[in-house]
Design goal:
This protein is mainly beta and about 120 residues long. The chain has one helix spanning about 85-95, and strands at about 15-20, 20-30, 45-55, 60-65, 80-85, 105, 115-119. It has a domain at about 1-5 and about 60-119. A 5-stranded mixed sheet has the order 5-4-3-2-6. Strands 1-7 form a two-stranded antiparallel sheet. A hairpin with a 6-residue loop joins β3 (about 45-55) and β4 (about 60-65).
Length: about 120
């Protein structure tokens, strides 16, 4: 499967990790939250309803579905691993912790979530 890799300056953390949190849908943005917050140093994104989020890093890095482009294999990410929505759903359904689709999120501690390796 081809996935989208990250921008050079916003590298995905590599190494061994575990699934920490899963959300079936999430609004992701890098817009400043307060007027006094500095503007982002990279292109602004504001994407509602990102599907099938499987978080593996405390900074918020995740494997998730990508509906806004089809350029997999070209560097476009801000750190997450972008995959086609069907692949993200498959990953979401088969990794631990297990949760229903009606749950806002499902969380684990590092000893329970499915181990993954990013390289």
């Amino acid at each position: 499967m081809t996935i989208e890799t990250v921008d050079v300056d916003l590298a995905t953390p590599t190494g061994d990790a575990s699934v920490l949190l899963k959300q079936p849908s999430r609004h992701m943005t890098n817009r400043p939250m307060k007027k006094e917050d500095p503007p982002p140093l990279v292109e602004v994104f504001d994407l509602p309803g990102i599907p099938w989020n499987t978080f593996f890093d405390l900074s918020g890095t995740a494997i998730h579905g990508t509906y806004w482009h089809n350029d997999f294999g070209i560097r476009r990410s801000h750190g997450c691993l972008n995959v086609p929505c069907d692949a993200a759903r498959w990953i979401y359904r088969w990794v631990h912790p297990i949760g229903g689709y009606e749950d806002d999120y499902v969380q684990s501690d590092r000893r329970v979530g499915t181990p993954i390796s990013i390289f």
